[in-house]
Design a protein that fits this description.
Blueprint (H helix, E strand, L loop, with lengths): L2 E9 L6 E6 L2 E7 L10 E4 L4 E4 L1 E6 L12 H10 L2 E6 L10 H14 L3 E4 L15 H6 L6 E2 L9 H14 L2 E4 L12 E2 L2 H6 L3 E2 L1 H18 L3 E3 L5 H12 L4 E5 L1 H5 L21 H13 L4 E2 L8 H4 L16 H10 L6 H16 L16 E11 L18 E11 L2 E5 L2 E2 L1
Parallel strand pairs: 1-4, 1-5, 6-7, 7-8, 9-10, 10-13, 11-12, 13-14, 14-15
Antiparallel strand pairs: 1-2, 2-3, 5-16, 16-17, 17-18, 18-19
Bound molecules: N-carbamoyl-L-aspartate (NCD) and zinc ion (ZN) (2 copies).
N-carbamoyl-L-aspartate (NCD) binds next to loops.
Length: 432
Amino acid sequence: MNEVVIRGALRYGEGDPVDVLVADGVIAEIGERGSLGAGDAAEVIEADGMVLLPGFVDLHTHLREPGREDTETIESGSAAAAIGGYTAVFAMANTDPVADNAVVVEHVWRRGRETGLVDVHPVGAVTVGLEGKRLAEMGTMAGSAAGVRVFSDDGHCVADPLLMRRALEYSTALGVLVAQHAEEPRLTSGAQAHEGERAARLGYAGWPASAEESIVARDCVLARHAGARLHVCHVSTTGTVDVLGWAKGLGIAVSAEVTPHHLLLTDERLASFDPVNKVNPPLRAEADVERMRVALAEGVIDCVATDHAPHAEQDKDCEWAAARPGMLGLQTALSIVVATMVRTGLLDWRGVARVMSERPAEIAGLPDQGRPLEVGEPANLALVDPDAEWTVHGPELASISANTPYEGMRLPAVVSATLLRGRITAREGKIG
Ligand SMILES: NC(=O)N[C@@H](CC(=O)O)C(=O)O
Ligand SMILES: [Zn+2]
Ligand SMILES: [Zn+2]
Protein backbone atom coordinates (compact mmCIF):
# COMPACT_ATOMS: atom_id res chain seq x y z
CA MET A 1 0.00 0.00 0.00
CA ASN A 2 1.21 3.47 -0.91
CA GLU A 3 1.12 5.50 2.32
CA VAL A 4 2.49 8.93 3.09
CA VAL A 5 2.36 10.80 6.40
CA ILE A 6 2.66 14.58 6.20
CA ARG A 7 3.67 15.65 9.68
CA GLY A 8 2.91 19.00 11.25
CA ALA A 9 1.52 20.98 8.31
CA LEU A 10 -0.92 23.88 8.53
CA ARG A 11 -3.97 23.33 6.34
CA TYR A 12 -4.43 26.53 4.28
CA GLY A 13 -1.83 28.05 6.61
CA GLU A 14 -4.46 28.15 9.36
CA GLY A 15 -5.12 26.70 12.82
CA ASP A 16 -2.99 24.14 14.63
CA PRO A 17 -0.47 21.89 12.90
CA VAL A 18 -1.86 18.51 11.86
CA ASP A 19 -0.63 15.13 10.70
CA VAL A 20 -2.19 13.96 7.45
CA LEU A 21 -2.21 10.30 6.45
CA VAL A 22 -2.52 9.71 2.75
CA ALA A 23 -3.40 6.16 1.67
CA ASP A 24 -4.81 4.63 -1.49
CA GLY A 25 -4.85 7.99 -3.21
CA VAL A 26 -7.04 9.79 -0.70
CA ILE A 27 -6.69 11.72 2.53
CA ALA A 28 -7.30 8.81 4.94
CA GLU A 29 -6.87 10.50 8.29
CA ILE A 30 -6.19 13.91 9.80
CA GLY A 31 -5.09 14.20 13.42
CA GLU A 32 -3.31 16.63 15.71
CA ARG A 33 0.42 16.90 15.30
CA GLY A 34 2.20 13.79 16.60
CA SER A 35 -0.96 11.67 16.61
CA LEU A 36 -0.29 9.66 13.45
CA GLY A 37 2.61 7.24 13.65
CA ALA A 38 4.24 6.22 10.44
CA GLY A 39 3.29 2.67 9.56
CA ASP A 40 5.99 0.34 8.28
CA ALA A 41 5.45 1.19 4.66
CA ALA A 42 4.73 4.87 5.15
CA GLU A 43 6.91 7.62 3.81
CA VAL A 44 7.13 10.58 6.17
CA ILE A 45 7.29 14.20 5.07
CA GLU A 46 8.39 16.49 7.91
CA ALA A 47 6.26 19.57 7.34
CA ASP A 48 6.58 21.74 10.45
CA GLY A 49 5.73 25.32 9.55
CA MET A 50 4.62 24.36 6.07
CA VAL A 51 1.34 25.22 4.37
CA LEU A 52 -0.77 22.40 2.92
CA LEU A 53 -2.87 23.35 -0.11
CA PRO A 54 -4.85 21.49 -2.76
CA GLY A 55 -2.63 20.80 -5.80
CA PHE A 56 -2.61 23.63 -8.31
CA VAL A 57 -4.55 23.54 -11.58
CA ASP A 58 -3.22 25.44 -14.61
CA LEU A 59 -5.83 26.30 -17.22
CA HIS A 60 -3.21 27.58 -19.66
CA THR A 61 0.02 25.72 -20.45
CA HIS A 62 1.96 25.25 -23.67
CA LEU A 63 3.69 21.86 -23.69
CA ARG A 64 4.84 22.08 -27.34
CA GLU A 65 4.34 18.37 -28.06
CA PRO A 66 3.75 17.39 -30.79
CA GLY A 67 6.01 19.44 -33.05
CA ARG A 68 8.43 21.48 -30.97
CA GLU A 69 9.94 18.83 -28.71
CA ASP A 70 13.18 20.80 -28.92
CA THR A 71 11.57 23.40 -26.63
CA GLU A 72 9.33 21.30 -24.31
CA THR A 73 7.77 17.87 -24.17
CA ILE A 74 4.82 16.50 -22.29
CA GLU A 75 7.37 14.83 -20.00
CA SER A 76 9.55 17.90 -19.34
CA GLY A 77 6.56 20.19 -19.01
CA SER A 78 4.86 17.73 -16.64
CA ALA A 79 8.02 17.71 -14.52
CA ALA A 80 8.05 21.52 -14.37
CA ALA A 81 4.38 21.45 -13.40
CA ALA A 82 4.82 18.89 -10.63
CA ILE A 83 7.82 20.74 -9.19
CA GLY A 84 5.73 23.92 -9.29
CA GLY A 85 2.97 22.32 -7.18
CA TYR A 86 0.57 21.50 -10.02
CA THR A 87 -1.53 18.35 -10.19
CA ALA A 88 -3.43 19.20 -13.39
CA VAL A 89 -2.61 21.29 -16.45
CA PHE A 90 -4.46 22.18 -19.64
CA ALA A 91 -2.20 21.87 -22.67
CA MET A 92 -2.98 24.47 -25.33
CA ALA A 93 -3.80 23.40 -28.88
CA ASN A 94 -1.22 25.48 -30.81
CA THR A 95 1.05 22.51 -31.45
CA ASP A 96 2.27 21.16 -34.78
CA PRO A 97 0.09 19.45 -35.91
CA VAL A 98 -2.60 21.54 -34.23
CA ALA A 99 -4.76 19.77 -31.65
CA ASP A 100 -7.88 20.22 -33.75
CA ASN A 101 -8.85 16.54 -34.02
CA ALA A 102 -9.31 13.44 -31.90
CA VAL A 103 -5.99 11.85 -32.93
CA VAL A 104 -3.86 14.69 -31.62
CA VAL A 105 -5.80 15.30 -28.40
CA GLU A 106 -5.76 11.58 -27.63
CA HIS A 107 -2.01 11.49 -28.20
CA VAL A 108 -1.44 14.36 -25.75
CA TRP A 109 -3.77 12.82 -23.22
CA ARG A 110 -2.10 9.40 -23.47
CA ARG A 111 1.44 10.81 -23.22
CA GLY A 112 0.32 12.72 -20.13
CA ARG A 113 -1.02 9.54 -18.56
CA GLU A 114 2.14 7.58 -19.37
CA THR A 115 4.29 10.32 -17.84
CA GLY A 116 2.05 10.30 -14.79
CA LEU A 117 3.40 13.41 -13.05
CA VAL A 118 0.36 15.61 -13.52
CA ASP A 119 -3.05 15.19 -15.16
CA VAL A 120 -2.57 16.57 -18.68
CA HIS A 121 -5.85 17.72 -20.22
CA PRO A 122 -5.56 18.62 -23.88
CA VAL A 123 -7.28 21.78 -24.99
CA GLY A 124 -8.95 21.39 -28.39
CA ALA A 125 -8.71 24.03 -31.11
CA VAL A 126 -11.89 25.99 -31.84
CA THR A 127 -11.10 26.30 -35.54
CA VAL A 128 -9.36 23.99 -38.00
CA GLY A 129 -5.62 24.66 -37.97
CA LEU A 130 -6.21 27.71 -35.71
CA GLU A 131 -6.99 29.49 -38.96
CA GLY A 132 -10.21 31.10 -37.80
CA LYS A 133 -12.13 29.94 -40.88
CA ARG A 134 -14.03 26.76 -40.03
CA LEU A 135 -15.02 25.26 -36.70
CA ALA A 136 -13.02 22.22 -35.66
CA GLU A 137 -14.84 19.02 -34.76
CA MET A 138 -15.39 20.02 -31.16
CA GLY A 139 -17.91 17.24 -30.53
CA THR A 140 -15.55 14.52 -31.72
CA MET A 141 -12.77 15.82 -29.47
CA ALA A 142 -15.16 16.14 -26.53
CA GLY A 143 -16.35 12.59 -27.11
CA SER A 144 -12.86 11.14 -27.60
CA ALA A 145 -10.90 9.24 -24.95
CA ALA A 146 -9.27 12.57 -24.07
CA GLY A 147 -12.69 13.95 -23.06
CA VAL A 148 -11.78 17.48 -24.13
CA ARG A 149 -13.65 20.04 -22.03
CA VAL A 150 -11.82 23.27 -22.87
CA PHE A 151 -11.46 24.67 -26.40
CA SER A 152 -9.22 27.54 -27.46
CA ASP A 153 -7.38 28.90 -30.49
CA ASP A 154 -4.89 30.44 -28.04
CA GLY A 155 -2.03 32.17 -29.78
CA HIS A 156 -4.74 33.40 -32.11
CA CYS A 157 -8.02 35.16 -31.42
CA VAL A 158 -11.27 33.73 -32.77
CA ALA A 159 -11.76 37.11 -34.38
CA ASP A 160 -14.75 36.37 -36.66
CA PRO A 161 -17.84 37.14 -34.56
CA LEU A 162 -19.99 34.64 -36.47
CA LEU A 163 -17.53 31.80 -35.81
CA MET A 164 -17.20 32.81 -32.18
CA ARG A 165 -20.97 32.89 -31.85
CA ARG A 166 -21.26 29.37 -33.31
CA ALA A 167 -18.45 28.07 -31.11
CA LEU A 168 -20.21 29.42 -28.02
CA GLU A 169 -23.51 27.87 -29.12
CA TYR A 170 -21.88 24.48 -29.70
CA SER A 171 -19.98 24.69 -26.44
CA THR A 172 -23.23 25.05 -24.53
CA ALA A 173 -24.72 22.03 -26.27
CA LEU A 174 -21.57 20.00 -25.56
CA GLY A 175 -21.16 21.22 -21.99
CA VAL A 176 -17.63 22.48 -22.68
CA LEU A 177 -15.85 25.81 -22.28
CA VAL A 178 -14.43 28.19 -24.89
CA ALA A 179 -11.35 30.13 -23.76
CA GLN A 180 -10.58 33.21 -25.83
CA HIS A 181 -7.21 34.81 -26.56
CA ALA A 182 -8.69 38.30 -26.76
CA GLU A 183 -6.78 40.25 -29.39
CA GLU A 184 -8.52 42.10 -32.21
CA PRO A 185 -6.01 41.38 -34.97
CA ARG A 186 -6.89 44.52 -36.94
CA LEU A 187 -5.67 46.57 -33.97
CA THR A 188 -2.43 44.67 -33.32
CA SER A 189 -0.98 44.20 -36.76
CA GLY A 190 2.80 44.59 -36.41
CA ALA A 191 2.50 45.24 -32.67
CA GLN A 192 5.63 44.66 -30.62
CA ALA A 193 4.83 46.03 -27.16
CA HIS A 194 2.20 47.68 -24.97
CA GLU A 195 0.97 50.84 -26.68
CA GLY A 196 2.24 53.62 -24.48
CA GLU A 197 5.03 56.06 -23.90
CA ARG A 198 7.74 53.46 -23.53
CA ALA A 199 7.00 51.66 -26.81
CA ALA A 200 6.64 54.99 -28.58
CA ARG A 201 10.05 56.14 -27.39
CA LEU A 202 11.66 52.93 -28.66
CA GLY A 203 9.80 53.09 -31.94
CA TYR A 204 7.86 49.83 -31.40
CA ALA A 205 4.39 49.52 -32.93
CA GLY A 206 1.90 49.41 -30.06
CA TRP A 207 -0.50 46.68 -28.88
CA PRO A 208 -3.39 48.83 -27.62
CA ALA A 209 -5.49 47.94 -24.60
CA SER A 210 -8.56 48.36 -26.78
CA ALA A 211 -7.54 45.32 -28.86
CA GLU A 212 -8.11 43.16 -25.78
CA GLU A 213 -11.04 45.04 -24.30
CA SER A 214 -13.11 45.22 -27.49
CA ILE A 215 -12.96 41.44 -27.96
CA VAL A 216 -13.75 40.72 -24.31
CA ALA A 217 -16.76 43.04 -24.47
CA ARG A 218 -17.95 41.54 -27.76
CA ASP A 219 -17.54 37.99 -26.47
CA CYS A 220 -19.42 38.74 -23.26
CA VAL A 221 -22.32 39.98 -25.38
CA LEU A 222 -22.12 36.89 -27.62
CA ALA A 223 -21.99 34.58 -24.58
CA ARG A 224 -24.98 36.33 -23.06
CA HIS A 225 -27.14 35.82 -26.13
CA ALA A 226 -25.92 32.25 -26.64
CA GLY A 227 -26.53 31.44 -22.97
CA ALA A 228 -22.96 30.18 -23.00
CA ARG A 229 -20.02 30.24 -20.64
CA LEU A 230 -16.89 32.12 -21.71
CA HIS A 231 -13.36 32.10 -20.33
CA VAL A 232 -10.98 34.98 -20.99
CA CYS A 233 -7.28 34.09 -21.24
CA HIS A 234 -4.45 36.24 -19.83
CA VAL A 235 -6.28 39.43 -18.85
CA SER A 236 -3.84 42.34 -18.94
CA THR A 237 -5.61 45.73 -18.87
CA THR A 238 -7.66 47.82 -16.45
CA GLY A 239 -10.33 48.23 -19.11
CA THR A 240 -10.78 44.46 -19.36
CA VAL A 241 -11.38 44.36 -15.61
CA ASP A 242 -14.06 47.04 -16.06
CA VAL A 243 -15.73 44.97 -18.79
CA LEU A 244 -15.57 41.79 -16.68
CA GLY A 245 -17.10 43.62 -13.73
CA TRP A 246 -19.92 44.88 -15.94
CA ALA A 247 -20.53 41.43 -17.45
CA LYS A 248 -20.49 39.62 -14.13
CA GLY A 249 -22.85 42.23 -12.74
CA LEU A 250 -25.31 41.30 -15.48
CA GLY A 251 -24.97 37.62 -14.66
CA ILE A 252 -23.06 36.74 -17.82
CA ALA A 253 -21.22 33.44 -17.25
CA VAL A 254 -17.70 34.75 -17.85
CA SER A 255 -14.55 33.70 -16.03
CA ALA A 256 -11.06 35.07 -16.40
CA GLU A 257 -7.43 34.33 -15.65
CA VAL A 258 -4.35 36.47 -15.08
CA THR A 259 -0.77 35.30 -15.53
CA PRO A 260 1.91 35.63 -12.85
CA HIS A 261 3.93 37.92 -15.13
CA HIS A 262 1.03 40.34 -15.55
CA LEU A 263 0.82 40.47 -11.74
CA LEU A 264 4.46 41.50 -11.41
CA LEU A 265 6.16 42.86 -14.52
CA THR A 266 5.60 46.10 -16.48
CA ASP A 267 6.69 47.50 -19.82
CA GLU A 268 9.54 49.15 -17.95
CA ARG A 269 11.29 45.92 -18.92
CA LEU A 270 11.37 47.12 -22.53
CA ALA A 271 14.38 49.25 -21.64
CA SER A 272 16.51 46.10 -21.40
CA PHE A 273 15.80 45.22 -25.05
CA ASP A 274 15.83 41.59 -23.88
CA PRO A 275 13.18 39.58 -25.80
CA VAL A 276 12.72 37.34 -22.76
CA ASN A 277 10.24 40.09 -21.84
CA LYS A 278 8.29 39.80 -25.08
CA VAL A 279 4.93 38.16 -24.46
CA ASN A 280 1.35 38.20 -25.66
CA PRO A 281 -0.48 40.17 -24.40
CA PRO A 282 2.45 42.47 -23.69
CA LEU A 283 3.70 43.57 -20.30
CA ARG A 284 1.58 46.62 -19.51
CA ALA A 285 1.79 49.74 -17.33
CA GLU A 286 2.12 49.96 -13.52
CA ALA A 287 -1.57 50.90 -13.15
CA ASP A 288 -2.58 47.75 -15.05
CA VAL A 289 -0.44 45.51 -12.81
CA GLU A 290 -1.91 47.13 -9.70
CA ARG A 291 -5.44 46.58 -11.05
CA MET A 292 -4.72 42.91 -11.91
CA ARG A 293 -3.80 42.27 -8.28
CA VAL A 294 -6.90 43.95 -6.86
CA ALA A 295 -9.20 42.28 -9.40
CA LEU A 296 -7.74 38.86 -8.53
CA ALA A 297 -8.15 39.52 -4.80
CA GLU A 298 -11.76 40.64 -5.32
CA GLY A 299 -12.66 37.76 -7.65
CA VAL A 300 -13.41 39.85 -10.76
CA ILE A 301 -10.49 37.86 -12.17
CA ASP A 302 -11.12 34.30 -11.07
CA CYS A 303 -7.77 32.61 -11.13
CA VAL A 304 -4.09 32.51 -12.00
CA ALA A 305 -2.96 30.65 -15.12
CA THR A 306 0.67 30.48 -16.15
CA ASP A 307 0.58 30.75 -19.97
CA HIS A 308 3.82 28.76 -19.65
CA ALA A 309 5.32 29.32 -23.12
CA PRO A 310 8.71 27.69 -23.71
CA HIS A 311 10.78 28.94 -26.64
CA ALA A 312 14.07 27.85 -28.18
CA GLU A 313 17.15 29.97 -27.57
CA GLN A 314 17.34 31.03 -31.21
CA ASP A 315 13.75 32.32 -31.03
CA LYS A 316 14.52 34.48 -27.99
CA ASP A 317 18.20 35.35 -28.28
CA CYS A 318 17.67 37.60 -31.30
CA GLU A 319 16.44 41.09 -32.09
CA TRP A 320 13.19 42.07 -30.40
CA ALA A 321 11.01 42.17 -33.52
CA ALA A 322 12.09 38.68 -34.62
CA ALA A 323 11.64 37.05 -31.19
CA ARG A 324 8.67 34.87 -30.38
CA PRO A 325 6.37 35.98 -27.59
CA GLY A 326 6.03 33.94 -24.41
CA MET A 327 7.77 33.05 -21.15
CA LEU A 328 8.13 30.09 -18.79
CA GLY A 329 5.79 30.03 -15.82
CA LEU A 330 5.08 26.67 -14.23
CA GLN A 331 7.90 26.54 -11.68
CA THR A 332 7.73 30.19 -10.67
CA ALA A 333 3.95 30.76 -10.51
CA LEU A 334 3.45 30.09 -6.80
CA SER A 335 6.41 32.26 -5.81
CA ILE A 336 5.18 35.17 -7.95
CA VAL A 337 1.69 34.84 -6.47
CA VAL A 338 3.21 34.88 -2.97
CA ALA A 339 5.36 37.93 -3.81
CA THR A 340 2.54 39.93 -5.41
CA MET A 341 -0.57 38.77 -3.53
CA VAL A 342 0.39 37.23 -0.16
CA ARG A 343 3.31 39.44 0.86
CA THR A 344 1.21 42.49 -0.08
CA GLY A 345 -1.67 41.36 2.14
CA LEU A 346 -4.10 41.01 -0.78
CA LEU A 347 -4.60 37.25 -0.35
CA ASP A 348 -4.18 34.79 2.49
CA TRP A 349 -3.38 31.12 1.87
CA ARG A 350 -7.08 30.28 1.53
CA GLY A 351 -7.12 32.83 -1.24
CA VAL A 352 -4.10 31.21 -2.86
CA ALA A 353 -5.94 27.86 -2.80
CA ARG A 354 -8.92 29.57 -4.41
CA VAL A 355 -7.06 31.24 -7.30
CA MET A 356 -4.48 28.51 -7.98
CA SER A 357 -6.62 25.40 -7.46
CA GLU A 358 -10.30 25.62 -6.57
CA ARG A 359 -11.53 28.14 -9.13
CA PRO A 360 -9.57 26.72 -12.08
CA ALA A 361 -10.82 23.22 -11.22
CA GLU A 362 -14.40 24.52 -11.10
CA ILE A 363 -14.06 26.51 -14.32
CA ALA A 364 -12.79 23.44 -16.20
CA GLY A 365 -15.16 21.05 -14.44
CA LEU A 366 -12.54 18.77 -12.89
CA PRO A 367 -14.32 16.81 -10.16
CA ASP A 368 -11.19 15.53 -8.38
CA GLN A 369 -9.04 18.67 -8.26
CA GLY A 370 -9.26 21.75 -6.07
CA ARG A 371 -11.07 19.74 -3.42
CA PRO A 372 -11.23 20.55 0.32
CA LEU A 373 -8.42 19.25 2.55
CA GLU A 374 -10.70 16.75 4.29
CA VAL A 375 -10.75 13.02 4.99
CA GLY A 376 -12.00 11.02 2.01
CA GLU A 377 -10.97 13.64 -0.57
CA PRO A 378 -8.48 12.79 -3.34
CA ALA A 379 -4.89 13.42 -2.22
CA ASN A 380 -3.94 15.98 -4.86
CA LEU A 381 -1.80 18.21 -2.72
CA ALA A 382 0.87 20.90 -2.72
CA LEU A 383 3.02 21.42 0.36
CA VAL A 384 4.59 24.87 0.52
CA ASP A 385 7.43 26.18 2.66
CA PRO A 386 6.30 29.81 3.04
CA ASP A 387 9.52 31.09 4.62
CA ALA A 388 12.06 29.53 2.26
CA GLU A 389 13.47 31.49 -0.66
CA TRP A 390 15.14 30.47 -3.89
CA THR A 391 16.99 32.00 -6.79
CA VAL A 392 15.74 31.37 -10.32
CA HIS A 393 18.19 30.00 -12.87
CA GLY A 394 16.63 29.18 -16.23
CA PRO A 395 18.94 26.29 -17.12
CA GLU A 396 18.17 24.61 -13.77
CA LEU A 397 14.41 24.55 -14.39
CA ALA A 398 12.88 21.25 -15.52
CA SER A 399 11.74 22.78 -18.81
CA ILE A 400 13.84 22.15 -21.89
CA SER A 401 13.72 25.88 -22.61
CA ALA A 402 15.14 28.49 -20.25
CA ASN A 403 13.22 31.67 -21.19
CA THR A 404 12.33 32.84 -17.70
CA PRO A 405 11.91 36.58 -17.08
CA TYR A 406 12.88 35.98 -13.44
CA GLU A 407 16.48 34.94 -14.12
CA GLY A 408 18.66 35.68 -11.09
CA MET A 409 15.74 36.90 -8.98
CA ARG A 410 15.39 35.75 -5.39
CA LEU A 411 11.76 34.65 -4.88
CA PRO A 412 9.75 33.80 -1.77
CA ALA A 413 8.13 30.39 -1.05
CA VAL A 414 9.25 26.96 -2.17
CA VAL A 415 7.03 24.03 -3.17
CA SER A 416 8.36 21.34 -0.88
CA ALA A 417 6.28 18.42 -2.16
CA THR A 418 3.51 17.65 -4.63
CA LEU A 419 1.22 14.61 -4.41
CA LEU A 420 -0.93 13.31 -7.25
CA ARG A 421 -3.59 10.85 -6.03
CA GLY A 422 -1.41 10.13 -3.01
CA ARG A 423 1.82 9.56 -4.92
CA ILE A 424 4.74 11.96 -4.41
CA THR A 425 5.42 13.45 -7.86
CA ALA A 426 7.94 16.09 -6.77
CA ARG A 427 9.93 16.80 -3.68
CA GLU A 428 12.32 19.66 -2.93
CA GLY A 429 12.54 20.76 -6.53
CA LYS A 430 13.09 17.30 -7.96
CA ILE A 431 10.83 14.72 -9.55
CA GLY A 432 9.48 11.87 -7.37
N1 LIG B 1 1.69 34.04 -24.63
C1 LIG B 1 2.55 34.08 -25.62
O1 LIG B 1 3.22 35.11 -25.77
N2 LIG B 1 2.74 33.05 -26.45
C2 LIG B 1 1.97 31.84 -26.51
C3 LIG B 1 0.69 32.00 -27.23
C4 LIG B 1 -0.35 32.76 -26.44
O2 LIG B 1 -0.58 32.48 -25.26
O3 LIG B 1 -1.02 33.63 -26.99
C5 LIG B 1 2.84 30.77 -27.20
O4 LIG B 1 2.30 29.75 -27.60
O5 LIG B 1 4.06 30.95 -27.26
ZN1 LIG C 1 -2.80 33.73 -25.78
ZN1 LIG D 1 -0.96 30.88 -24.29
